[in-house]
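User: Predict structure, ligand pyridoxal-5'-phosphate.
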Amino acid sequence: MAVIANGEVRMANLCLACCHTINGVSKLHSNILTESIFRDYYNIDNSKFTNVTNGIAYRRWLMQANPELSSYLDELIGTKYRKDSKALEDLMQFKGNKEVIDRLFEIKKNNKIRLAEYISSANGINVDPDSIFDIQIKRLHEYKRQLLNVLQILYMYNKIKENPNLDIPPRTFIFAAKASAGYFMAKQIIRLIVAVSNTINNDPIAREKIKVVFIEDYRVSLAEKIIPAADISEQISIAGKEASGTGNMKLMINGAVTLGTLDGANVEIFENVGEDNIFLFGMKAHEVDELWRRGYSPLDYTRNNPELQKVLDMLTSNVLGARFDDVAKSLLTNAYGTADAYMALADFDSYVKAQQRVSETYTDKYKFGDMSLTNIAKAGVFSSDRAIMEYAKNIWHCK
Ligand SMILES: *Cc1c(COP(=O)(O)O)cnc(C)c1O
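Assistant: Predicted complex:
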């Protein structure tokens, strides 16, 4: 709790000591603050602690970024939702309505065509707008586990190589991310994504079923192009590390279905849409803590899983056109007890199974369509109008 100790100023402790209110930015995050990192402070004085779950400027992320969907919503439920995001829930009356689902798919397809044109001009890669657009866009960080996504893609690639007739709906994996300037491992992971993209997109068999694209220069104006085209929203951080996430909310309100862990605001997305309208996988935050305390050994997971071992071997051979020894080492070498610090290998099997559920579900157009519609309808609570109102009322007591 000390503000100054060992010759340094502890910024977070300084904040607690002098602030008016302390809030996490999602329910899970607020609970982690009081139960874990600021527990001692909380036990002495709990009066400052509260929660305000983040929100997004949905008039940018829905109305401005996705005008075709917004116009259709106007037709279906009127324009009330444009000022009152909770009115999106009126959309629920159209669940199971095939005509509405067909039209939502058509709008999604148009957005996918627009993104495909951008990818064609920016990357020189042709992607199929009828494939599932599976999207992970966010800062490149090990805790966000872009690497887990890549390992699963390599697993799928191996499955297709073993059986070229594998019956799965075609998938386009789209990444966009910046690495901060001094973050060596993040840059290695970008290098890996690009190598996997080149390998798969140049394989005449695999590229009929999966493609991988890394779009450069991730920023808000690019996010506005990508998000309306998403079918699947990858929110796969190790539980306990993502304070809230807001990309998850932007994708949800555009009808993407979340494939994620119970981390940050994903927990509240799950509470709002229900278990039938989200693809959950992986350890919960308390299970991550327990495994960490027991002692985590990534080799326990590779020993029992030859398919995972095969994927890891690809990183240190030359099959991807280059070697990725540093990435492999970060997952497997336990020199300082930090091997696979974000437990990608522990969640690998559960993630593979969740991806199989995605493929199966997408094959049933109206089932997936209902999931997508439900996500749009239930996204209203994640408006920044609500978040700002909570700050104004509960913290600043504005009149
Ligand atoms: C929304 C947004 C983010 C935050 O994304 P997360 O998935 O919540 O990490 C980061 N960068 C840009 C450009 C965004 O628009």
